[in-house]
UniProtKB/TrEMBL annotation:
Designated name of the protein: C2H2-type domain-containing protein
Superkingdom of source: Eukaryota
C2H2-type domain boundaries: 3-28, 33-54
UniProt organism field: Lottia gigantea (Giant owl limpet)
Amino acid sequence: MGPKCPKNQCPYCGVYHSNVVQHVKERHLAKREQCPTCHTTFTRRTSLIRHLNHSCKSLQYTLDTIK
């Protein structure tokens, strides 16, 4: 078994230490972006843009729209 996430209550276990570091940066330290339509939370802006363009068809966004 690999290294575990140091955050309490998080079940993530990576293969390498670098995987755990990347996980902590993305999941626990990253700024959260929220969909204005369905209020789903995303850690990456590109994931939010993809969600808005494909799932929430009511609004079409680009990276310039969300700042």
